[in-house]
């Protein structure tokens, strides 16, 4: 049953309109009539949806930060208290300046703000709080879907007291359950960066519900409220500030207004426009303020986009061919056919969400380059179904069918448009997270199809049991997929069977193994990543690093040289190449590689540190100190650079300068035990025994198993004349490291001295 608000003023037209409304109420078909499904009060329906959506993803609550979470959260300085809040409005989702050439241009300041609040309340990077918020958001959205589906499937009608009626309680519950348990949503809920999609969806739905409130009769008797239309526009803007897709709700509100509020027949309108029919105003375009409301929506949307454009600048984001190979194809035919194939795969993920993967790029889906490719069948099937649905949506004599199919297609297609490559290049092939909103349209179409089958079926309960089985399977699939998102190891390995041709999958498995110290296994996966994508410079860089550590310098140099040849501005590869060349004692080439790295990344403290080590090996002490000083200026907490400065100054006899540098370092990094140790050595040589002892003991307390700490403290006591304490710490040091030659010699000297003292005492 569909509703249009009548005017409450007493005039001659009012009785006729009311009679027309009652006739419509009697004749409009009801989806629930033939559906065998649970009929629950609205409150209980929402409780059931909330509980089931919680059960689907509850096991992700204590998962780690995985995949993109590292860049968006852990490495994002916008989350930290020292970063001004104003910076969030000038940075992208990953914390880079929007004006930067390397910016992703993903402008989602409100999502980043929620991450920042999470970080501040948790007192650090503890993933539990982040995951819990995501689960709560999905449960909230699923509950709101009960109201949204009741409007989309049953129509919009209010009581005399202004309370909205649910005219499709069974089918709205079924559609909400389908949405709540859809496995394709796992990435958004279990992956913390998916909060952008969740927040966007929340305000997207609130905007829609707010727009529906505009048609509740107000005290003045007007047939719509401008206030609620403007509220809807504002909520759409908030949705867009969470993620780009949010702006599409304004278009959907316009579609809903035309089809449901004004009962516009699109085909009839097109025909009248083509024939320049003078009765066009009777087609519903100008009735009930439709044109005025659409003007408000369009003006609001244009203003929002303009402001966003002004903040972001005109430059498009920089993506590479591996991110979205079809968009880099020279042939328009190849681009078009592959885009359509991607659409068919997205549709398949909605229909059969069994093969899910955290990343679909890097060869996971090879390009279609010829019409002889059998995969053409998939996109042909997609367009066959879409054209069939569009024809029914436009041409069916059943106005109820027309509206539901058009709304279903609208909610399926319109939110997907920003990810379609039609307006601008996107940085992915397929991304499961972008199907979160379009799945609303899928749930509408599925539920409507179920109602049609129920109408024809003789054994309705068997059909209901089948749908219940689908829901249960999806619940189990969600739980399984959520468990895979709990850790990077499980997530990356789960992708090997889905996308075995994806070089990034093998790269991430290899990186995860390398981080755990399993270098032999990591090498295998890195090599496979390079084989699948011979231009994969990051895999070459990481493989080169491992080979360098295993002293396989020749192959490491070949890989790193190839990486910088493919990508000449790859600063990390240049630095690693310099390290390998330094190990091969090709010092001039190493120095050149380091400076090339710094040329491409001017703020590169690690490279300055390695350059300083090179200069120290060449006895260019001043140059070494300058390089390490640059490293500490760029990164004040660079402990290794501070330590090397202290040690070099100590070794060259500059004890006063070494002491000054050590004290400066400890002011910046007060809990670094290695700095305490280095400064304690300098103070000991300067005969500041008491202060040196205090630093040694503090360092030992922080790292009690460091043999050198005990050994050098023993040397201090030995010089100081505290021979018993010296003996004690020599013995602890030798127990921790029996092979330490200097400590053993000093200990033997001390023992001989103690024996001599005992003999003198005995005499």
Low-confidence stretches: 1-28
What is the 3D shape?
Answer: elongated
Total E-strand runs: 0
Give the biggest beta sheet: none
Helix content: 55-70%
Structural class: mainly alpha
Number of discrete helical segments: 33
Distance between the termini: 115 Å
Radius of gyration: 34 Å
Strand proportion, as a percent range, falls in under 5%
Global mean pLDDT: 88
Membrane topology: Multi-pass membrane protein
Family: Belongs to the TMTC family.
InterPro entries: O-mannosyl-transferase_TMTC, TMTC_DUF1736, TPR-like_helical_dom_sf, TPR_rpt
Organism: Athene cunicularia
Summarize the structure.
With 763 residues, the chain is an all-alpha fold. It is built from 33 helices and no strands.
């Amino acid at each position: 049953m569909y509703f249009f608000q009548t005017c409450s003023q007493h005039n001659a037209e009012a009785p006729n309109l009311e009679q027309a409304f009652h006739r419509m109420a009697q004749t409009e078909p009801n989806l629930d009539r033939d559906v065998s499904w649970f009929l629950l009060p609205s409150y209980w329906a929402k409780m059931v949806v909330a509980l089931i959506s919680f059960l689907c993803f509850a096991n992700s609550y204590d998962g780690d930060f995985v995949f993109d979470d590292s860049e968006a959260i852990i490495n994002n300085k916008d989350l930290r208290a020292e970063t001004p809040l104003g910076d969030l409005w000038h940075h992208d989702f990953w914390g880079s300046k929007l004006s930067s050439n390397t910016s992703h241009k993903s402008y989602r300041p409100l999502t980043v703000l929620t991450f920042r609040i999470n970080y501040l309340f948790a007192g650090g990077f503890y993933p539990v709080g982040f995951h819990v918020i995501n689960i709560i958001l999905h449960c909230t959205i699923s509950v709101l879907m009960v109201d949204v589906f009741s409007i989309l499937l049953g129509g919009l009608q209010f009581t005399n007291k202004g309370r909205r009626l649910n005219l499709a309680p069974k089918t709205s519950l079924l559609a909400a359950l389908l949405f709540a348990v859809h496995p394709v949503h796992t990435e958004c809920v279990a992956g913390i960066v998916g909060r952008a999609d969740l927040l966007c969806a929340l305000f997207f739905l609130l905007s829609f519900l707010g727009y529906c409130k505009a048609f509740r009769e107000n005290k003045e008797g007007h047939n719509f409220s401008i206030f609620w239309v403007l509220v809807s526009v504002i909520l759409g803007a908030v949705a867009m500030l969470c993620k780009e897709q949010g702006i599409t709700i304004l278009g959907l509100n316009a579609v809903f207004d035309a089809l449901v509020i004004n009962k516009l027949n699109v085909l009839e309108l097109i025909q009248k426009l083509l024939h320049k029919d003078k009765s066009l105003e009777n087609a519903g375009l100008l009735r009930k303020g439709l044109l005025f409301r659409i003007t408000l929506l369009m003006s609001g949307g244009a203003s929002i986009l303009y402001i966003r454009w002004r903040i972001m600048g005109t430059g498009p984001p920089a993506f590479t061919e591996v991110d979205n190979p079809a968009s880099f194809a020279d042939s328009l035919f190849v681009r078009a056919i592959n885009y359509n194939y991607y659409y068919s795969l997205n549709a398949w993920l909605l229909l059969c969400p069994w093969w899910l993967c955290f990343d679909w790029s890097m060869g996971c889906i090879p390009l279609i380059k010829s019409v002889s490719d059998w995969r053409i069948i998939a996109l042909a099937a997609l367009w066959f179904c879409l054209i069939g649905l569009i024809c029914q949506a436009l041409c069916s004599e059943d106005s109820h069918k027309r509206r539901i199919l058009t709304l279903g297609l609208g909610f399926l297609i319109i939110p997907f448009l920003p990810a379609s490559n039609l307006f601008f290049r996107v940085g992915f092939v397929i991304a499961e997270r972008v199907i979160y909103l379009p799945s609303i349209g899928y749930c509408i179409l599925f539920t409507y199809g179920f109602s049609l089958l129920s109408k024809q079926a003789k054994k309705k309960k068997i059909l209901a049991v089948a749908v219940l089985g689908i829901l249960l399977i999806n619940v189990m699939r969600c739980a399984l997929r959520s468990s895979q998102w709990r850790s990077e190891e499980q997530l990356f390995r789960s992708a090997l069977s889905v996308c075995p041709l994806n070089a990034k999958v093998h790269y991430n498995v290899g990186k995860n193994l390398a981080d755990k110290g399993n270098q032999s296994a990591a090498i295998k996966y890195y090599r496979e990543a390079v084989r699948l994508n011979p231009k994969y410079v990051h895999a070459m860089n990481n493989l080169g690093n491992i080979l360098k550590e295993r002293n396989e310098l020749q192959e490491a140099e070949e890989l790193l040289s190839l990486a910088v040849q493919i990508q000449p501005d790859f600063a990390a590869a240049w630095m690693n190449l310099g390290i390998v060349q330094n190990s091969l004692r090709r010092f001039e080439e190493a120095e050149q590689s380091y400076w090339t790295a710094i040329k491409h990344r001017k703020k590169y403290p690690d490279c300055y540190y390695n350059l300083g080590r090179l200069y120290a090996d060449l006895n260019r002490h001043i140059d070494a100190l300058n390089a390490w000083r640059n490293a500490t200026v760029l990164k004040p907490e660079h402990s290794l650079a501070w330590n090397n400065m202290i040690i070099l100054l100590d070794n060259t006899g500059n004890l006063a300068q070494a002491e000054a540098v050590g004290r400066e370092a400890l002011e910046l990094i007060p809990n670094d035990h290695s700095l305490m140790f280095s400064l304690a050595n300098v103070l000991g040589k300067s005969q500041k025994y008491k202060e040196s002892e205090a630093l040694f003991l503090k360092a030992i307390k922080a790292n009690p198993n460091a043999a050198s700490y005990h050994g050098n403290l023993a040397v201090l006591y030995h010089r100081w004349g505290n021979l018993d304490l010296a003996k004690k710490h020599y013995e602890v040091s030798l127990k921790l490291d029996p092979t330490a030659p200097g400590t053993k010699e000093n200990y033997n000297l001390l023992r001989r001295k103690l024996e001599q003292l005992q003999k003198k005492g005995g005499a």
